[in-house]
Design a protein that fits this description.
The chain is α+β, with helices and mostly antiparallel strands and 654 residues long. Helices cover 39% and strands 11% of the residues. Strands 1, 2, 3, 4, 5, 6, 9, 14 and 15 form a nine-stranded mixed β-sheet that branches. Strands 7-8 form a two-stranded antiparallel sheet. The longest helix has 21 residues. It is globular and about 65 Å long. The chain binds adenosine-5'-diphosphate and magnesium ion (MG) (4 copies).
């Protein structure tokens, strides 16, 4: 989760006197950086993924599985390996970072991927190699899984067991602060400062999946008053940041050629985030109960919510507070490219001082609004030794606010300490997938879609309020089949802001309408005017100079996305729910007992390692790639006849 810094963390009350100072200097840092890099050009796309993993430990004799609180030791060993490699001038295939849970680690490729389509061939291999590196340092009964552990916060969910201590920072009744990564005090400080700022315990209520024998109403009774008060019937009550941030996700960062393209791509990918959230749904179980949602989004957002009751509108405003409509972890509130302005229909809370300073220093209105909007949040991770900073050589005060605005997209300026890295955007909404094949597929889909957008100069913008609504729908159970999403029903070229205004004036809304479409229609086409995102990518590939072997691999990835969208195969969330509901020990009461979790995680581990194949989740077995076969297969391959691109655009040429 963002900024890695060491020092003496300040508590919330210690931070308060420095808030204005940090914001002011954070804005100065941004202005300096922007002026330095606003004309920066990078030759090509670079990109990379981030995968968060859970380490689990099996107790085969008792048919139990727990999360293994060993990420510290594992990271130390991985770092040793990285230093060795550096010493011996050997290439590092992966980089590792701590994550919130003491049972989590985050892995990225050793170096970002480049722009050639052949790079796609490396992605899955790198993910496999990454996993193997960790496997080498795990004990025999441990496993590395790219999943969200279904029993987070259930009794005794860790190995070794850790107790909930009186007076622990979180005040949770389920999750011991000792299950948080202690290697880095920043996580505890962050959580504790969120809690102190908001002035009450963190909690969220996740709708429970009502099965045949689920109690109605479903209501748990807790030993303390506050939990009973905070929990609501027919919901699973959770009360620690670990229930959200202790879950795993998949992120992709793209470096763009310049700041203009970064702003544009940030906007264009924003309406895609809910689509990916629904397509990647993999979180149907919370605290060992089946939920009526398939994704972690709202839960994590609640558990990072640092707003005070008056900021939420639940009490009269005080202390020059203003009403803040969204949580710190939530969907993006505004587009940032000038051509997108007319789609910004959510009133934005701005930090006025920051806004004025940005404008005074030549930052345009659209970017200034975005930065001043993220600066309505207070800093939560401040280090005593690092208060004084040279605004020309450090970005830390900016980063402390930027990296704790956890949105579906993030606009990342070039890091001051790494001159080789340019302007970037991060796609943050995808849920983690079980296998490297799937994670590679989701990443490749996104990277190809981004190339299509840039190359064809298309626009998928819809009013930003509709993106917010789509994110809500995307989390519902089986959203991929049951929900409809606001989306443009026709491919349209991206217009400048003047052209946009002109079109609206003429009553010609760009020749498209915003429809409510299913994921299947969005991904595979609606059989009418909308060609579908994957057929569009396939068309792009038809025109690209790409070797047959890479194309074959890409097609497997695109097939997976298409089959998930059409319902031919399941999302992981659906698969997990089915697994539970067909387990002989399941009582149809929503509770996912130890043995079920054990059997499920064991099966998941076998699938991850390629020892088992489940067609309902992955489709046909990923083929062994042999050059001759590939060629034949590519020749024989039956693809639906596509509209030629110009046709799809209704004769528009560009
Ligand atoms: P954060 O946690 O702040 O999102 P990470 O360092 O964990 O950042 O991940 C950054 C990701 O960005 C990695 O996947 C990396 O490969 C990718 N990336 C994209 N472009 C670049 C670039 N130019 N240089 C380095 N990394 C890049
Ligand atoms: Mg992370
Ligand atoms: Mg991070
Ligand atoms: Mg990261
Ligand atoms: Mg990230």
């Amino acid at each position: 989760m963002g900024l890695l810094t060491l020092g003496t963390p300040l508590t919330w009350s210690e931070t308060i006197p420095y808030i204005d100072y940090i914001k002011e200097h954070g804005i100065d840092q941004f202005i300096n950086l922007y002026c330095r890099y606003k004309n920066r050009e990078d030759a090509q796309l670079k990109w990379g993924d981030e995968i968060e993993y859970s380490i689990v430990k099996f107790d085969h004799a008792n048919k139990k599985v727990r999360v293994s609180l060993h990420s510290d030791e594992i990271l130390t060993q991985l770092d040793k390996q990285i230093s060795e490699n550096k010493k011996n001038h050997k290439e590092n295939l992966s980089l590792w970072a701590p994550e919130f849970g003491g049972y989590m680690i985050e892995g990225t490729p050793g170096a970002p991927y480049g722009s050639s389509l052949e790079c796609i061939d490396v992605v899955e291999k790198n993910m496999i190699a990454r996993r193997n590196e960790v496997r080498k340092v795990l004990s025999n009964d441990e496993a590395l899984l790219s999943i969200t552990f279904p029993s987070i916060g259930a009794p005794d969910f860790t190995s070794p067991p850790v107790k909930i201590k009186a007076g622990q920072a979180s005040e949770s009744i389920f999750f011991s602060d000792d299950a948080v990564n202690y290697h880095n005090k920043r996580y505890i400080t962050l959580m504790s400062n969120v809690l102190q700022r908001r002035g009450e315990r963190l909690y969220s209520n996740v709708p429970i999946f009502k099965d045949k024998n689920t109690l109605s109403p479903f209501k748990e009774h807790f030993s303390d008053e506050e939990s009973n008060k905070n929990s609501i019937p027919d919901h699973i009550y959770v009360d620690h940041m670990g229930f959200g941030v202790g879950m795993c996700c998949l992120q992709v960062t793209f470096q763009t050629v310049n700041v203009n393209e970064a702003r544009w791509l940030y906007d264009q990918l924003t309406p895609i985030t809910p689509i990916m959230l629904a397509l990647s749904a993999s979180t149907p179980i919370f605290r060992s109960y089946l939920a009526d949602v398939d994704s972690r989004w709202d839960v994590i957002a609640d558990l990072c919510d640092d707003r005070t009751p008056d900021e939420k509108g639940e009490a009269p405003l005080k202390d020059n507070h203003v009403i803040i409509n969204k949580r710190r972890y939530d969907s993006t509130d505004c587009y940032i490219h000038p051509s997108s302005a007319e789609f910004n229909d959510i009133p934005l809370e701005l930090d006025k001082k920051s806004y004025e300073k940005l404008i005074k220093n030549g930052i345009d209105e659209h970017l200034a609004r975005h930065i001043a909007h993220i600066f309505i949040r207070d800093p939560l991770q401040v280090y005593r030794e690092r208060l004084e900073q040279d605004v020309t050589t450090s970005m830390e005060h900016f980063e402390t606010i930027q990296s704790s605005n956890w949105c579906n997209m993030r606009f990342k300026p070039p890091p001051i300490e790494s001159p080789e890295i340019g302007w970037r955007v991060e796609f943050r909404a995808t849920e983690i997938q079980l296998t490297d094949f799937e994670n590679a597929a989701y990443c490749c889909f996104l990277v190809l879609l981004s190339r299509v957008l840039v190359s064809y100069n298309l626009s998928f913008l819809i009013p930003i309020s509709q993106v917010t609504e789509n994110i809500k729908r995307a989390q519902k159970r089986d959203a991929v089949h049951n929900q409809k999403f606001y989306f443009r029903n026709k491919l349209t070229k991206c217009l400048s802001s003047d052209e946009n205004v002109q079109q609206v004036k003429n009553g010609n809304c760009h020749g498209y309408e915003i429809d409510e479409m299913s994921i299947n229609e969005i991904i595979n086409g609606d059989g009418k005017e909308f060609v579908g995102l994957v057929p569009l990518i396939r068309q792009f590939l038809d025109g690209a100079n790409i070797d047959v072997e890479s194309l074959f691999k890409i097609n497997r990835y695109l097939d997976l996305i298409q089959d998930r969208a059409s319902g031919k195969i399941f999302t992981l969330a659906h698969w997990m729910r089915d697994f539970v509901r067909s387990h002989p020990e399941y009582q149809y009461d929503s509770h996912v007992g130890d043995t079920i979790v054990y059997d499920m995680i064991k099966t998941m581990n076998e699938i991850t390692q390629g020892k088992k194949h489940d067609e309902s989740l992955l489709g046909k077995a990923p083929p062994v790639v042999k050059p001759k076969e590939v060629e034949n297969a590519a020749k024989k391959e039956q693809r639906p006849k596509l509209l030629c691109y110009e046709d799809a655009l209704n004769g528009q040429k560009f």
